[in-house]
Amino acid sequence: MSSELVVIITGVLVGASCALVGCFLVLRRMALLGDAISHSVLLGIVGVFFFTGGRSALLMVLGAGAVGLLTVSLVELINRTGRVREDAAIGLVFPALFSLGVIFVSRFPSRVHLDVEHVLYGEIAYAPFYRFELFGLDLGYRSFWMLGIMAALDLLFVGLFYKELKLATFDPGLAAAIGFSPVVIHYGLMAAVSATTVVAFDSVGAILVVAMLIVPPSTAYLLTDRLTTMFALAVGTGAASAVGGYWLARSIDGSIAGAMATVAGLLFVAAFLLSPLHGLVARLLRLRHLRRVFARGLLLSHLEGHHGSADLATLRCRFLWNARTAAAVTRGAVRDGLVRETTSGAYTLTEQGRGAARDVAAG
Amino acid sequence: MSDPTISAAPPPVEVRDLTVAYQARPVLWDVDLVVPEGKLMAIVGPNGAGKSTLLKTALGLVPAAAGWVKIFGRPYAEQRHLVAYVPQRGSVDWDFPTNALDVVTMGRYGALGWLRRPGKREREVAMECLRQVGMADFAGRQISQLSGGQQQRVFLARALAQDARLYFMDEPFAGVDATTERAIVELLRGLRAEGKTVVAVHHDLQTVDHYFDEVALLNVRLVAAGPVADAFTHDNLHLTYGGRIGFLAGGPDHGPATSAAD
């Protein structure tokens, strides 16, 4: 397999597994907590390095998972004291744990085989060089195994507990009342986020993991009103960011992880502007359409009412329309056969227009 | 429980010596309350009186500092399947990507238990419940596109889907239009006709005697509880609202107490 393809597939697996757990983070308004976990897991990784000296994937995931859950419970503990709000509590906890990790990395470089650059930006470009060996057998690329298993576990987690996660996210009160403890579900999700983060960490680093967790699900959220579709779109966007990011990094000769996050961001901006459902352009168009309908209603009922006819100046004065609005509204009404322009330059209702005016009045 | 010689069935809700506190502040103080079966009971009281907290404690969502609540004679955890819950409409995120039918289907999740997925049968039940609240035409509608009253009816349909014997409702009438208000009243009467029990937090003192059989007046302590004709008196309203919050003292004088005194 070409090393190019190895890097791309690794990136796609990162994007897919992060998007799966990220969807619930976004829907639960816990993006910041995802950010916190993705940073503080560094302490777990470093701890495992420091105490075992090895690079055992399982220990690494367990260590990071433990620190991830520690982050969540510390945030809740501080939050519960009453005087520190959740965002501030998050801002207190994760820099503390992250900086401990950074100190370990810089103080014991011989025992912790990580450099700061790797921690921050990952080393996806090296994915082709790490092989997975068991009992002396070469089983293929290490990143494929780790990320493939993680993506499968995330899919299993979301698939098995879809109903529980959905209910606890939408209505935690009802979830608790009918026996699906939102606390258990919350910690389950946070464990999944922690594990996913640490596996993805190797490839894209501490800073950009959060981009893969949050950006593709946010993009998907703008594009659909259905939860299942949101998952599919998030995974698709995550994968597309990886492929596009690799291509971008190649063409500008820059960081692959950085380019992946950039492409994810660009896709988000595109959805933000162009989504037919919640995009800025669609919203503006809808708004303009509503304004036009309303303005036409005003025109018709005015003509139907006490006057019978009116010229542009009267209309502009009556409704505070500028010249462009007045011209557009009357032109539209004439085109649709609701209003007729008389020889003196005034406007009167046609037969069809009188019917439409009565509809406006009836609401 | 299975002994047929025990004739007195345990009441739907029995609250004894219940005290609940947030931090050091008591929200409920030594409350005793029995809700009789087959009745519609309103819980009224000023803001901060602990009305929602009473429901939440009964549902095990808020821990009690002292005392207990029993549902049909047993702790709530053993009786979940008999109880439906309608939270305040504002307590959930209506931008959540889902439709009305799916929200109502959530009412079946408790019966399904962990891991089992809702299927055709659950959706049929949900559809029937939407029909009962006059929302069948909105089944596929994204929930953020519904009006406040329609959202409330979706919540009630979800409670119907829970197929319970006891219904807890937190302000079902809050901020709804006249159509929805009528639909809710009809629904409550339908539930009563089937012998179900409803406990609802209620804010509109004017309608207590029209909509409900029983009333509990609460202001941290329980002021009075019983049939509306007995408990919903001017004196009790004054004790509940008047003494503590001066500017509300005018409230009871306008209408409800006089109609209750008829």
Automatic annotation (TrEMBL), chain A:
Key words, A-Z: Cell membrane, Membrane, Transmembrane, Transmembrane helix, Transport
GO process annotations (BP): response to zinc ion; transmembrane transport
Superkingdom as given in the UniProt entry: Bacteria
Record-linked Pfam families: ABC-3
Protein's UniProt keywords contain S-adenosyl-L-methionine: no
Subcellular localization: Cell membrane
Matching InterPro entries: ABC_BtuC-like, ABC_TroCD
Lipid bilayer topology: Multi-pass membrane protein
CDD domains: TM_ABC_iron-siderophores_like (cd06550)
Sections of the chain in a coiled coil: none
Transmembrane portions of the chain: 6-27, 32-51, 57-77, 89-108, 144-162, 174-198, 204-223, 230-249, 255-282
GO cellular component, one term: ATP-binding cassette (ABC) transporter complex
Similarity comment: Belongs to the ABC-3 integral membrane protein family.
PANTHER family: ABC-TRANSPORTER METAL-BINDING PROTEIN (PTHR30477), METAL TRANSPORT SYSTEM MEMBRANE PROTEIN CT_070-RELATED (PTHR30477:SF8)
Record-given protein name: Mn-Zn_transporter_SitD
TrEMBL record, chain B:
Family (UniProt): Belongs to the ABC transporter superfamily.
Protein name (database record): Manganese ABC transporter, ATP-binding protein SitB
Gene3D superfamilies: P-loop containing nucleotide triphosphate hydrolases
Pfam families, sorted: ABC_tran
Keyword Nucleotide-binding: yes
Cross-referenced InterPro entries: AAA+_ATPase (IPR003593), ABC_transporter-like_ATP-bd (IPR003439), ABC_transporter-like_CS (IPR017871), Metal_Ion_Import_ABC (IPR050153), P-loop_NTPase (IPR027417)
CDD domains (alphabetical): ABC_Metallic_Cations
Source taxonomy: Bacteria, Pseudomonadati, Thermomicrobiota, Thermomicrobia, Thermomicrobiales
Entries under PANTHER family matching the protein: IRON TRANSPORT SYSTEM ATP-BINDING PROTEIN HI_0361-RELATED (PTHR42734:SF5), METAL TRANSPORT SYSTEM ATP-BINDING PROTEIN TM_0124-RELATED (PTHR42734)
Organism: uncultured Thermomicrobiales bacterium
Assigned keywords, A-Z: ATP-binding, Nucleotide-binding, Transport
PROSITE patterns from the UniProt entry: ABC_TRANSPORTER_1 (PS00211), ABC_TRANSPORTER_2 (PS50893)
Residue span, ABC transporter domain: 13-245
GO molecular function terms listed in the Swiss-Prot or TrEMBL record: ATP binding; ATP hydrolysis activity
Organism domain of life: Bacteria
